[in-house]
Design goal:
The complex is a heterodimer of chains A (391) and B (124).
Chain A: E1 25-26, H1 30-35, E2 39-43, E3 46-51, H2 55-64, E4 66-70, E5 75-80, H3 84-91, E6 104-110, E7 116-126, E8 129-134, H4 139-149, E9 155-158, E10 163-169, H5 173-178, H6 184-188, E11 195-200, E12 203-208, E13 217-223, H7 227-238, E14 243-245, H8 248-257, E15 310-316, E16 327-329, E17 335-344, E18 351-357, E19 367-372, E20 375-382
Parallel strand pairs in A: 1-3, 4-14
Antiparallel strand pairs in A: 2-3, 4-10, 5-8, 5-9, 6-7, 7-8, 10-13, 11-12, 12-13, 15-18, 15-20, 16-17, 16-19, 17-18, 19-20
Chain B: E1 10-11, E2 16-18, E3 24-28, H1 30-36, E4 39-43, E5 50-51, E6 56-62, E7 66-70, E8 73-80, H2 82-86, H3 89-93, E9 102-109, H4 115-122
Classes of the chains: A alpha+beta (391), B alpha+beta (124).
């Protein structure tokens, strides 16, 4: 038996042994993961938990109760100064100066040709302080691009190695987090994509109502040295409510069901936001102080875009799952696209995938095949997301 | 990582095991099952099919990945573990027992390792 075909977020192959490659950065929560018996994996230069017990059990816990995630590999870049918002408007595709303090936006940083360098969540902490959260694999790229693009009074600082990020995700997340903070009212009142400074389990944290699972939940940014104490407090408070620690494997299957893109799969340097159906993040109506269209990196390439492919959801009609990189064909065998992510959906009980296909094959209900290791498996184009939480 | 490997079984570098019985029972090791994560689908040859040692004879799919199953022996499949096909988590929970995959009338055995050799090679 071999494992030739792991999906990329948490690949376990002979090239990436479970025992740590020496070069990997250890999370501030590394000792907690070891104590919990986690299987560790090398991901984007970090050694992170792949799973603690069972991928499916961790996935289901997030859907039905809560999961506790270590996301300390994510990059935290702070941009501070009187011109921070305006500078980010020029560096990113979004309109960050229009963001109210305490709110967050999903946005992207693109190259001049419109290709996506990374997808980001940007928090406006105060009038003149922003937090840019980047994917671990792209921190250096984003940092370098921002360093080049930011002008005026906008100082860039990379807090990636001194900041830990812990997520509590699932229907019981609010109960768990508010039970540990004197700022319970402010935390409970947080809207989706909003954040507030709060003390959780005695530890100062930025508490954000954001996530990557399709469930309600929080992401807590804390100083790296305080992370183990916060992790243990959350685990202790959450366990009676069904919270379990959850690894990157569950994170990937949860985000796939929720139809959320993963950089390196759905997004990369060769895709535009429009390809991924995310053209809405490109704010062409941004204006400068004189009311003229604001130049931002990628603006020309991202104006009047007609995508040549579309990101679609595919429901597998058989049992074998499509995986990253597999060809998508018509029933007659003509190649019309490629799978970006795929897995058996733990919640839905059938395989699901996201794929880029040519626009004429992207209509809901279109029947296609995925070449799964030499054999065509039937799939049907379905709307994204595959899973939407009950409200 | 220390792994409990039954000493009476033979192992392959590709993480299959087989026993000395007639017909021989074939499965995958706990090392393989742990690396895959939760197994959700098994595709196995049917009873009566001929196997060639070293050939790909099936697939084992988990939420995170999929692996090909190689035959450790040449011979004919006499029984397939329907219980494991119906509930592939048996391969995770009891890979050397209830999670067996095939029973095979063996005509020839491919290269195998002892438990110690396999442990040295695979489990660290």
């Amino acid at each position: 038996m071999t494992t030739p075909d792991a999906t990329k977020e948490s690949e376990v192959t002979e090239d990436q042994p479970v025992d740590s490659p020496a070069a990997d950065i250890l999370s501030p929560l590394h000792d907690e993961h070891v104590a919990l018996g986690a299987a560790l994996t090398s991901f984007a230069g970090w050694q992170m938990p792949l799973r603690y017990s069972s991928d499916i059990a961790e996935h289901q816990a997030v859907r039905t109760a809560a999961g506790l995630f270590d996301l300390s590999h994510m990059g935290e870049l702070e941009v501070a100064g009187a011109d921070a918002g305006r500078a980010l408007d020029r560096a990113l595709v979004g309109n960050l100066s229009a963001l109210a303090p305490g709110r967050a936006r999903y946005t992207m940083i693109c190259a001049e040709d419109g290709g996506v360098l990374d997808d980001l969540v940007v928090y406006r902490l105060t009038d003149d302080r922003y937090l840019v959260v980047a994917n671990a694999s792209n921190v250096a790229t984003v940092r370098d691009a921002l360093a080049e693009r930011l002008h005026g009074d906008a100082l860039l600082a990379d807090g990636s190695l001194t900041t830990a990020l812990i997520a509590v995700q699932g229907p019981r997340a609010q109960e768990i987090v508010t039970g540990l903070t004197p700022d319970a009212e402010a935390v409970a009142a947080l809207k989706y994509y909003a954040a507030v400074e709060a003390t959780v389990a005695g530890i100062p944290a930025l508490v954000a109502r954001t996530g990557y699972t399709g469930e309600d939940g929080f992401e807590l940014f804390v100083a790296a040295d305080a992370a183990p104490a916060l992790w243990r407090s959350l685990l202790e408070a959450g366990t009676p409510l069904g919270l379990v620690p959850a690894g990157l494997s569950a994170r990937d299957s949860l985000r796939l069901e929720a139809g959320m893109p993963l950089y390196g799969n759905e997004l990369d340097r060769t895709t535009t936001p429009h390809d991924a159906g995310l053209g809405r993040v490109v704010k062409l109506d941004k204006v400068d102080d004189e009311g003229n269209p604001l130049p931002f990196v990628g603006r020309e390439a991202l104006t009047d875009v007609t995508p040549t492919r579309r990101l679609v959801g595919l429901q597998g009609l058989g049992r074998r799952a499509a995986r990253h990189g597999y060809p998508v064909t018509t029933p007659a065998g003509e190649v019309v696209g490629e799978v970006t992510s795929g897995a058996p959906s733990p919640t839905l009980g059938h395989p699901v995938a996201m794929a880029y296909v040519s626009p004429d094959q992207a209509d809901e209900g279109t029947e296609l095949l995925v070449d799964v290791r030499g054999r065509g498996e039937q799939v049907r184009v379905v709307p994204l997301p595959f899973y939407r939480r009950p409200r | 990582m220390s792994v409990e490997l039954p000493a009476n079984l033979h192992y392959t570098a590709e993480h299959e095991w087989l026993d000395d019985a007639t017909p021989a029972t074939v499965g995958i090791t706990s090392v393989a099952a742990d690396a895959l994560g939760d197994i959700v689908y098994l595709e196995l040859p049917a009873a009566g099919e001929s196997l060639a040692a070293g050939a790909v004879i099936g697939e084992i799919e988990s939420t995170k990945s999929v692996s090909e199953l190689f035959s450790p022996v040449s011979g004919t499949v006499v029984e397939v573990n329907q219980a494991a096909i119906d509930d592939p988590s048996l391969v995770n929970t009891d890979p050397f027992g209830a999670g067996w995959l095939l029973r095979v009338d063996v005509t020839e055995t491919g290269p195998t390792l002892t438990a110690d050799e396999y442990r040295d090679q695979s489990a660290g």
